[in-house]
Amino acid sequence: MTSFLRYEQQGHIVTLTMNEPQRRNPLTGNTAVADFLEAIDRIHRDTSVRAVDTSVRAVIITGAGTAFSSGGNIRDMERQASGQVPGMEIRQDYRLGIQRLPLALFNLEVPVIAAVNGAAMGAGLDLACMCDMRIASEQAQFAESFVKLGIIPGDGGAWLLPRVIGLARAAELIFTGQVIDARQALEWNLVSRVVPPDQLLPTANELAGRIAANPPHAVRLAKRLLREALHTRLDTLLELSAGFQALSHQTSDHREAVSAFLDKRKPEFTGS
């Protein structure tokens, strides 16, 4: 079976391309979740400070063809709607399937950019929300379309979407299932910028390059703080920040940054 996910690395940047364009890159009914989990594990393991040229410092997720991701596979839903599949089996299918993806991406310390090239529907929109940043092609469209199929966001969308665009607008998308275009997504802060289609990946790579130019340990720890801040108290976050800062002050990259600033030269970070 052809892999759903294409893994490509150039320098410190990994691009993960959903590569089932003929079916608009669905996230179920194929190897999508397993491929994402394998790629995330590969990125986690690529942390050697001695292999500077191959260490991953930023990730881009995009789709091949005209869609980012159509979300769930309708044929899977047909089976689940048949009445022949026990409810507890469906529950396990979610828990051991698509629900592993938001947890894995949430815990990936490397910053992730969604380069949304086309339609991001249902779980496809939620996948974009699992990323840290979103850039959209002018041809992109977005919908939290579960309600149109008589179901609910089963992959964490009800947790993810309000944290990106706010509760009221998330409720509007979830309750109506409406489709919004890239410009409205920009107005609602669902994406940070909208670019012509031929500029999508160059723009994502430029942003990834600016991230990758910074000390990787500091970036990863900063991302972890942002993630923890979503669900913890201020005093707890401050305590965690103190510990992370103590670690950061002991890195070679911190010493290099201070030295380069005082010497008025460009720093050279090694990830150590």
From TrEMBL:
Annotated organism of origin: Cupriavidus basilensis OR16
Official protein name in the record: Enoyl-CoA hydratase
Stated family: Belongs to the enoyl-CoA hydratase/isomerase family.
Superkingdom, taxonomy of origin: Bacteria
MF-aspect GO terms: enoyl-CoA hydratase activity
Pfam families for the chain: ECH_1
EC class: lyase
NCBIfam families on file: PRK09245.1
